[in-house]
Every structure is written in structure tokens, then in C-alpha cells.
Design goal:
This protein is of the alpha+beta class and 437 residues long. The chain contains eight helices and 24 strands. Helix 2 (65-83) packs across helix 3 (104-115), helix 4 runs parallel beside helix 5 and helix 7 (355-373) runs parallel beside helix 8.
Length: 437
């Protein structure tokens, strides 16, 4: 392998060979595991979730289904890490999506068994659906191949640590990169709280106009959670290079961003703002969860990339290059007037057109432009997160990736999220990362 190129790991053909899936990507010192679900890849043909996980005829004869599902996912993750020459102790981040919050406790139990005391920063979000029937969870993971000056260090803090049931580290470093778990307004320790949410994140009890709830909660997360976690690693808000934000109420898109940009006006990170289902976060009444990646000294070292790509929010960067990684904001098929006209179906002949394919052509074309502007290429995309309002649109989007990558296996994850996305008419949003040495 050329050290300047990303390499697909353990590629497999799904759907009777119609979908070429990269179970992982190796890129320099990084390992990306994507779209992991509980499939049995030891079979010649992979048909959905492994039959022994579903155990449809005897569902209660062994471990609970969601524990078996988690175990199979982590076995698949182990295989990706081994193929890259590393192991589970070198994980630096995981993202979990579930179809129900009931899947979280069994997932966390098995993860604790599998990873012991080395659980990396984590984000857990409940969403509408997964690519496979019977799947209750999918994860994406990021690991490293350690070398001198680039070892994994878990940072500890009693107040900021994940609850014992989850056990993740409140911050982790690999070289100058800093990984922070998803922060929520869930009260910790002896913080005053209401229904589990820290009182400082809420309006005054009984008041109807004591501020906007999403702005109060966002301010709390940034100043009372994120700042402290970053400080464990000697980093600040100026060092943040990429952020994911999950909102339970799409009416909050603009108000969230107004608060966010007050704190990141000098050198903003790339940003995804993603809808999730109501009550899909750790605090039942929480409205928002945020996770971030930072790079120490990032304010001076991160480079904003401009390829003329339109983003959906004020002060939302197109892309940021930090070290040897290129982070791109969540992109939709939009121009300054909203959804691009050629991505909307003609109501007089709606069945002669795929809106999803047209959106994907536009988005992936913009991802290619950003990669080129950063000195890399679409072939070095190592992590693709697709957020669909209807997973029936996955396949036409995949076909665009297949064409643009000339048949190369695609490192995709696809999640069904509630509508609407931030721009009316958009039904797919894509977050992509690329290797850019």
C-alpha cells in the first residue's frame, strides 16, 4: 500500500453482489470501521443479520437478542482492527445508532465485557431505522495504529466520566488529536436537576418565557461540559476541528446554530446538525447531544478548505483539514436558494426520475471538489455517514458512489432519521471524512 492512499479492509459483496461494502479502511496510522452490524461474514453469501443472532424459532434459548447482536458487531470490529494490524485497545471513538433506547443497556453491557476499562469516547443516538431488517443497532468506530508520539491515552475525571453503565472515558488523546464523547444535559453528581436534566440547562421552573430552551441547553453543554472535557487534554474550544450535533426538534436548527456560532466565530469547526427521534438521547427530556474532535494547537494548525460548496447554516465551514484528516460538514444538494432545482422531481412525470440519485450526484460531486482542494481525492474517503429520511433511497445513492469510485468498495453507514432535514426538500445528508496526508 502507498502510504498516501487509503486501503479498503475486508471488502464484501452484499445484496447478491450488487453492493460492494468496505467493512473498514486503513489510512496511514488510522483505521476506520464503518456501518458495522451483526452479519455473519464467514458465510459465502451474507443474508442480513446472522440467523443465530435473530434465533427466530427459539428467541429466548440463549443470551438476549441485543446482547448477541452487540457481541457479533464487536467480533466484526475486531476482525477489521486485526486486518489493519491493531487491536481493540487502540480504539479512540465509537458512534452507536439504535432503533430503540431499549437496545442501549444490553449494548453497553457487552461493550464493557469486550473492552474492559478502555472504552473510548462514545455517542449513542436512537434513530428511525437501519439498513437491515431485524437490526437494532449499528456502529462506526475509529482506531489507530500506535507509534512513537501517537499512542492512545485515556483521560480520567470523576465528574465528567460516563456513568458506570457506559464507562467511557471523558476524553482521549492520540498524538495531538483529542476525542470527546457526546455531551448531554444529564445531571451528574450532586448537580441540581429536574427529571434527570441539570437544572442549569433548563428554563426557570414554571416560567414560560425565561429564554429559549435549546439556547439554554446548548450554552450549558458548551460551557459546563465541553470546555471541561477539552481542558483535560489541554485543549480549548478554538482547537475543535469537527462537531456532530443531534437535535430532537427540527424547529431548533437555527436557534442552536445562533448559540453555537457565538462560541466558534473565530475558527469554526466543520459541523453536522442531524435530527434524531424524540426522547432519543440519554436524558429523557434532553433536546441536544454534541460530540467533538479537537487538535491541540488547532486554531493555528487547522486549515479551512474552500471549494465554493454551499452549506446550510451561517458560518458552517465546508471542510477543515487537521493533520492528515479532512473533515467535511454534513452536505445536502443545495445552493443559496435551497434545494438545487435539478434535484426535485417534475410533478408532471415523477416516475421518470430519482430525486435521491440527483441529490447524491450533486453532494458527492461537492465532496470530490473538497477533496481535490485539500490535495487528496475521492478514493481517499474513509468514512461516509448517510442520513436518509427514507432508507428506500439508499441504493440509488450507493450507485452514485459506485460509479464515482469506479467499483471500489464503499465505506458507508446509512441511517434513517426523522424528517425534515435542515433544507426543505432535501432527503439525504452526507458527512464524509477523507485521508489527506
Amino acid at each position: 500500500m502507498n502510504d498516501r492512499n487509503a486501503e479498503p479492509l475486508l471488502p464484501v459483496e452484499l445484496g447478491a453482489g450488487k453492493v460492494k461494502f468496505a467493512r473498514g479502511m486503513k489510512a496511514g496510522r488510522w483505521v476506520f470501521a464503518t456501518g458495522l452490524m451483526a452479519q455473519d461474514f464467514a458465510q459465502d453469501l451474507v443474508h442480513g443479520i446472522a440467523p443465530d443472532v435473530l434465533a427466530e424459532r427459539t428467541p429466548h434459548a440463549g443470551r438476549p437478542k441485543r446482547e448477541k447482536e452487540t457481541l457479533r458487531i464487536y467480533e466484526n470490529l475486531d476482525a477489521v482492527l486485526r486486518a489493519a494490524g491493531t487491536d481493540r485497545t487502540n480504539l479512540v471513538r465509537t458512534d452507536q445508532y439504535y432503533t430503540t433506547v431499549k437496545a442501549v443497556p444490553p449494548y453497553q453491557q457487552v461493550r464493557r465485557e469486550f473492552l474492559g476499562g478502555r472504552i473510548p469516547p462514545s455517542t449513542s443516538i436512537a434513530q428511525r431505522g437501519m439498513l437491515l431488517p431485524g437490526a437494532d443497532m449499528t456502529i462506526q468506530a475509529l482506531g489507530v495504529i500506535p507509534q512513537a508520539g501517537f499512542e492512545v491515552t485515556h483521560l480520567k475525571h470523576e465528574q465528567l466520566a460516563g456513568r458506570p453503565t457506559s464507562g467511557y472515558s471523558p476524553a482521549l488523546t492520540a498524538g495531538d488529536f483529542v476525542f470527546i464523547p457526546g455531551v448531554t444535559s444529564l445531571a451528574v453528581g450532586d448537580e441540581p436537576k429536574r427529571n434527570g436534566v441539570a437544572a442549569a440547562a433548563l428554563m426557570t421552573e414554571g416560567a414560560q418565557w425565561a429564554g429559549q430552551p435549546i439556547k439554554l441547553e446548548t450554552e450549558f453543554l458548551i460551557t459546563r461540559r465541553m470546555v471541561q472535557s477539552l481542558a483535560l487534554a489541554g485543549a480549548t474550544l478554538d482547537d475543535v476541528v469537527h462537531a456532530q450535533v443531534y437535535l430532537t426538534d427540527p424547529d431548533d436548527y437555527s436557534a442552536f446554530n445562533e448559540t453555537w456560532t457565538r462560541h466558534f466565530s473565530k475558527s469554526p469547526p466543520t459541523l453536522d446538525i442531524i435530527p434524531c427521534i424524540p426522547h432519543g438521547l440519554a436524558p429523557y427530556d434532553g433536546k441536544i447531544e454534541i460530540n467533538v474532535i479537537a487538535m491541540k494547537g488547532g486554531a493555528a494548525r487547522k486549515k479551512h478548505v474552500d471549494a465554493g460548496v454551499v452549506t446550510a447554516f451561517a458560518q458552517q465551514p465546508q471542510a477543515v483539514k487537521a493533520g492528515d484528516l479532512l473533515f467535511m460538514s454534513g452536505l445536502m444538494a443545495i445552493d443559496r436558494d435551497g434545494l438545487v432545482p435539478h434535484a426535485a422531481a417534475d410533478p408532471k412525470q415523477p416516475y421518470f426520475f430519482s430525486a435521491a440519485e440527483a441529490q447524491a450526484e450533486f453532494i458527492i460531486g461537492n465532496i470530490a471538489k473538497l477533496c481535490e482542494a485539500a490535495g487528496t481525492s475521492l478514493r481517499n474517503v474513509v468514512r461516509i455517514l448517510q442520513f436518509h429520511t427514507d432508507l428506500a433511497e439508499f441504493y440509488p445513492v450507493y450507485k452514485v458512489w459506485e460509479h464515482r469510485l469506479e467499483g471500489r468498495p464503499v465505506p458507508f453507514s446509512a441511517i434513517e432519521v426523522p424528517s425534515p432535514l435542515p433544507v426543505p426538500g432535501a432527503t439525504v445528508m452526507i458527512e464524509a471524512w477523507a485521508y489527506a496526508p
